[in-house]
C-alpha cells in the first residue's frame, strides 16, 4: 500500500516560499506587458505578424500534384465552388514583397527590400479579401484630398507624419493636406518654388519619376501642370504609403532602388525628383546616381531636396554628390536652401572627363533599356545608341508628342506605319468600348487603369482626355516598346505576367489586356510558362471590388477564361469585336463582385 505524505502546517505557511511564488507571477506579468508594448509599438510586431501571415497563406497550398489537380479542375469549369479565401484574411497580401520571405535575405544594397517572388508551386491559390468595412473608393478628384479610413485603416503615417502635412485622420476619412517632409506647407507651394528654375509649365516636361514618394502628394499636384508622375517607394515601416497613393488616384508603384535596374527603359523621364528619399546616390562608386542618369532624358532635370544638400554633418556626402554631377557634366541650375537642381547634358561630348572619379562608360554590348531583373552596372549608360533625337526640347511638347511617331518606334520593322495603324485601331476600339459595350471609361467611376499588354500604348493614348491614368505594362519577352510609350508622354513598367505584380491589392478600377494567351506562352516551344488560373487570380488581387476586366483574345481562349470567372467571383459576358476590326477576336467583360468575409471570420 502506498504512503501519502502530508505537508505540515509549518511548511504551508513558509513566508519564503510565498514570496518566491509572487516574484515568479510578477515576473510573468511584467514580461507579458513588455512583450505587448514590443508587439504594438515596434517593428517586431509587424515582422512577427508577417511571419504568421505567410505561414497561414501557405496553408492554402497543397503539394504540387494536388495544386496541379486543383488548377486543372478550375480551368475545366468543373470546380463547383469559388476559390478559397486566403485563410488568414490578409487583406494586403503582396506575394513578391512579403516581409517574412524577405527578412532572411541580405541587407547589402537593400536586396531584401526588392521584389522576391515565390516559385510557381509556392503561390497560394486563394482570393485576397477586402478589409471589414471596405467601401467603393471615393472618386477622383475628391480622392486626391480624402479617402475612406476603413479601406486601409493604418494610422502609422498619420500619427508620425501628420505634423508635416502628409495625412491626418478625420472621422471616417484620411485627409491629405498635400504636405511632405521637405514641404510641410504643401506641395503646391513647393512646386511653385521649383517652377522658378524648371520649365514645369508649357508642355516641355511631361513624364516624371518621384523617388521615395511618401503618399505621393508631389506627383498628385503636378497633374495640375499636365506632368504625369510615376511615384515609387518600397513596402517599408511607413506601412502602405504606395497603397495610400493609389487609393488617392495617383500613379504609384512598389519599388526599391537596390541591386537591380529599375524596370524602365533608358531616357524615360523628363524630370526626376527626390524629396528626402535618402537614396545614397554616391555610394557603391556612384552606382545609384548612374541609374538615375540612365533613366533621365537628355536635357531633363534632376531635383533633390533634403539630405545631403547643405545638410548639417553631411558635408562630405554633399561634396561627393556635387563631384559626381560635375563628372557627368550636369549643369548646376541652382542650390536653394536644401534643394539642388541639375540639368542633364544633351549628348555624350564630355564623358571623357569622368576619369577623375574612376567612372567608366558601359561597353557597346550594354543595352541601356534592358531592365527586367538586370543588375545595376557600375558604368555610365550611353544614350547615343538610341535612334533619333530624344532630348527634352527636341521631342515635341505635350500634347503634340502623344500622336507623333517617335524615333524609337523604328525598333519595330515598319515601325512608323505600325505606330499610325495602332493609334487608329485603338481610337476605333475605345469608341466601341464606350458606345456599344457601355464600359465606364471616361466616367468618374474609373480612375486607375492598367493595360497588361500595352505595345505602343495606343489604348492609353486614346483615353488621355478622360479623367484617368494608365499603367502601361510591356512584357519583358515582347519587343521593347516601352521607350515609345514614354516618348509619347505616357508611363509604364516592364513585367512578366508569370509573376505577381508589385502593387497592393485593390488598386486598379479597370484592367485591360489584349492577347493574354501570348503573355503566358513560350513563343519558341508554344507551351505555357505558367497557368491561366494564377494570372487571373493575380488580376483579381489587383482589381478593386466592382472593378472591370476586359480581355481580347481568340474565341477558344475567351471561352476558357469564361469557364473560370465564376470560380473567382467575377460576373462575365462575352461580346463580338467591333465590326471594323480584322481577325477572330472576341471580348470578355467581367466585373469583380464586392464581397466580404463572413462576420465570424473578422
Automatic annotation (TrEMBL):
Keyword Ligase on entry: no
Name its cellular compartments.
Endomembrane system; Membrane
The residues the entry assigns to the signal sequence are: none
Q: Which GO terms describe its biological process?
A: methylation
Annotated TM spans: 21-41
- Keywords, sorted A to Z: Glycoprotein, Membrane, Methyltransferase, Signal-anchor, Transferase, Transmembrane, Transmembrane helix
Q: Which Gene3D superfamilies match?
A: Vaccinia Virus protein VP39
Q: Please give one Gene Ontology molecular function term for this protein.
A: S-adenosylmethionine-dependent methyltransferase activity
The top EC class, named as a word, is transferase
Bilayer topology reads: Single-pass membrane protein; Single-pass type II membrane protein
Documented EC number(s): 2.1.1.-
Instruction: State if Transmembrane is listed as a keyword.
Output: yes
- Pfam families per UniProt: Methyltransf_29
> GO CC terms on record?
endosome; membrane; trans-Golgi network
Q: Which family does it belong to?
A: Belongs to the methyltransferase superfamily.
Name by which UniProt lists this protein: Methyltransferase
What's the source species for this entry? Artemisia annua
List the taxonomic lineage.
Eukaryota, Viridiplantae, Streptophyta, Embryophyta, Tracheophyta
Amino acid at each position: 500500500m502506498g504512503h501519502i505524505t502530508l505537508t505540515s502546517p509549518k511548511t504551508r505557511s513558509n513566508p519564503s516560499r510565498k514570496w518566491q511564488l509572487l516574484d515568479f507571477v510578477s515576473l510573468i506579468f511584467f514580461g507579458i506587458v513588455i512583450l505587448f508594448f514590443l508587439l504594438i509599438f515596434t517593428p517586431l510586431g509587424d515582422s512577427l505578424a508577417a511571419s504568421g501571415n505567410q505561414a497561414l497563406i501557405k496553408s492554402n497550398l497543397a503539394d504540387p500534384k494536388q495544386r496541379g489537380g486543383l488548377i486543372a479542375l478550375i480551368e475545366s469549369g468543373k470546380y463547383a465552388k469559388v476559390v478559397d479565401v486566403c485563410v488568414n484574411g490578409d487583406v494586403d497580401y503582396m506575394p513578391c514583397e512579403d516581409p517574412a520571405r524577405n527578412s532572411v535575405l541580405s541587407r547589402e544594397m537593400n536586396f531584401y527590400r526588392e521584389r522576391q517572388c515565390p516559385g510557381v508551386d509556392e503561390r497560394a491559390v486563394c482570393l485576397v479579401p477586402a478589409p471589414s468595412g471596405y467601401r467603393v473608393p471615393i472618386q477622383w478628384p475628391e480622392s486626391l484630398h480624402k479617402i475612406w479610413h476603413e479601406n486601409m485603416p493604418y494610422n502609422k503615417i498619420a500619427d508620425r507624419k501628420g505634423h508635416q502635412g502628409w495625412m491626418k485622420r478625420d472621422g471616417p476619412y484620411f485627409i491629405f493636406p498635400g504636405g511632405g517632409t521637405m514641404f510641410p506647407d504643401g506641395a503646391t507651394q513647393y512646386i511653385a518654388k521649383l517652377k522658378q528654375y524648371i520649365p514645369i509649365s508649357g508642355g516641355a516636361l511631361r513624364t516624371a519619376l518621384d523617388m521615395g514618394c511618401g503618399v505621393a502628394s508631389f506627383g498628385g499636384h503636378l497633374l495640375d501642370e499636365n506632368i504625369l508622375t510615376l511615384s515609387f517607394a518600397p513596402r517599408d515601416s511607413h506601412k502602405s504609403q504606395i497603397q495610400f497613393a493609389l487609393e488617392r488616384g495617383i500613379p504609384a508603384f512598389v519599388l526599391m532602388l537596390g541591386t537591380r535596374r529599375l524596370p524602365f527603359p533608358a531616357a524615360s523621364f523628363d524630370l526626376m525628383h527626390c524629396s528626402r528619399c535618402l537614396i545614397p546616390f554616391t555610394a557603391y562608386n556612384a552606382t545609384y546616381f548612374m541609374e538615375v542618369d540612365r533613366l533621365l532624358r537628355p536635357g531633363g532635370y534632376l531635383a533633390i531636396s533634403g539630405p545631403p544638400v547643405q545638410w548639417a554633418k553631411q558635408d562630405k556626402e554633399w561634396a561627393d554628390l556635387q563631384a559626381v554631377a560635375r563628372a557627368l557634366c550636369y549643369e548646376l541650375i541652382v542650390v536653394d536652401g536644401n534643394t539642388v537642381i541639375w540639368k542633364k547634358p544633351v549628348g555624350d561630348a564630355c564623358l571623357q572627363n569622368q576619369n577623375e572619379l574612376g567612372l567608366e562608360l558601359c561597353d557597346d554590348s550594354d543595352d541601356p533599356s534592358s531592365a527586367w531583373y538586370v543588375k545595376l552596372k557600375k558604368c555610365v549608360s550611353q544614350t547615343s545608341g538610341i535612334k533619333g533625337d530624344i532630348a527634352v526640347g527636341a521631342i515635341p511638347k505635350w500634347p503634340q508628342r502623344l500622336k507623333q511617331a517617335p524615333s524609337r518606334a523604328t525598333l519595330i520593322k515598319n515601325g512608323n506605319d505600325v505606330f499610325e495603324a495602332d493609334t487608329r485601331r485603338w481610337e476605333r476600339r475605345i469608341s466601341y468600348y464606350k458606345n456599344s459595350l457601355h464600359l465606364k471609361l471616361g466616367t468618374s467611376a474609373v480612375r486607375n487603369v492598367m493595360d497588361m499588354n500595352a505595345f505602343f500604348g495606343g489604348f492609353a493614348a486614346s483615353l488621355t482626355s478622360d479623367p484617368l491614368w494608365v499603367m502601361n505594362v510591356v512584357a519583358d519577352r515582347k519587343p521593347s516598346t516601352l521607350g515609345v510609350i514614354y516618348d509619347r508622354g505616357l508611363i509604364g513598367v516592364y513585367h512578366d505576367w508569370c509573376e505577381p505584380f508589385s502593387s497592393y491589392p485593390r488598386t486598379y478600377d479597370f484592367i485591360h489586356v489584349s492577347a493574354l494567351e501570348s503573355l503566358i506562352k513560350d513563343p519558341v516551344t508554344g507551351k505555357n510558362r505558367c497557368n491561366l488560373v494564377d494570372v487571373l487570380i493575380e488580376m483579381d488581387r489587383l482589381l478593386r471590388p466592382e472593378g472591370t476586366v476586359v480581355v481580347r483574345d481568340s474565341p477558344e481562349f475567351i471561352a476558357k477564361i469564361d469557364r473560370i470567372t465564376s470560380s473567382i467571383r467575377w460576373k462575365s459576358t462575352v461580346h463580338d469585336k467591333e465590326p471594323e476590326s480584322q481577325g477572330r477576336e472576341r471580348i470578355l467583360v467581367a466585373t469583380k463582385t464586392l464581397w466580404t468575409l463572413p462576420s465570424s471570420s473578422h
